[in-house]
Amino acid sequence: MGFPKQVRLVDVAPRDGLQNEPDAIATDTKLELIDRLANAGLRHIEAASFVSPKWVPQMADHREVMTRLQRRPGVTYSALTPNLKGLENALECGVEEVAVFGAASEAFSQKNINCSINESLQRFAPVLERARQANVPVRGYVSCVLGCPYEGEIEPDQVARVARALFDMGCFEVSLGDTIGTGTPLTAKHMLEAVTRDIPMDKLAAHFHDTYGQAIANLYAVLEEGISVIDSAVAGLGGCPYAKGAAGNVASEDVVYLLNGLGTEHGIDLDTLAATGDWITRTIGRPNRSKVGVSITRS
User: Fold this and answer.
1) How many CA atoms lie within 13 A of 159 on its CB side?
2) Given 144, 148, 171, 240, which residue is catalytic?
3) What's the rounded Cα separation, in Å, for the pair 80 and 94?
4) Is residue 1, in this structure, part of any structural domain at all?
5) Which of 68, 100, 191, 246 has its CA 20 to 30 A from that of 62?
6) Which domain CATH number covers 246?
7) Catalytic (active site) residue 240
8) Looking at 125-271, which runs of residues are DSSP E strands?
């Protein structure tokens, strides 16, 4: 199919990147991170997660984050809303886009959200319906599309089944997550081939973690097939609380550097983005996992 001329990056650092941090991060720090990302040119930022603080304490200030953030024209600030209660709370805060998350692995679904894949999909139905009534678009996530910490390899057809269910429910876009980062370029292409039998390429996104150092190679592979939406996190922040040893998301700086090399439009200023990654990792005392970011800020 060939590389897309333009790619949209979704920076998930404020939510997926920070949710696992053991020490409380100040709301003001989260808000500054969001604003710095927007200043760097990000037009889609996942800002918060409306989940129970019991399960994800780091996201307990979701309401304050969503109501206090400085909204910029043309920037979408989305939030994760896994259930109807979370959606209602998000709607009260003026959220403009939400997301639900399922899994392509039965074992991971049970460990992550305490129900089967089919049960999780049934839970999403009222969320999608309520969001439709509120005229709020819903994005769908599928975890473990290239491997599971409990089941090992996942069949591409299983990924396709879950992705199709989310799409048929009304998700405007389905993000395919290599949650534990074990995928390789060929397995990524095979998975994408199965999913695109039922869902148009322009309704899909790639959400690849870098545990085994393959995220950039895998993104190159799916870009080559026509993927034009990529989830990433500045400085490679994040991981997965349910996948032991899972490293962070692919670094936004590394993705932008790749896109620059391909001549692909994305609208992001790399130097400003790298400075943001340097600032947030210093602020929260975490290593900067972006090779590009470290090279730019330390040179």
Assistant:
1) 32
2) 240
3) 13
4) no
5) 246
6) 3.20.20.70
7) yes
8) 138-143, 173-178, 204-208, 229-232
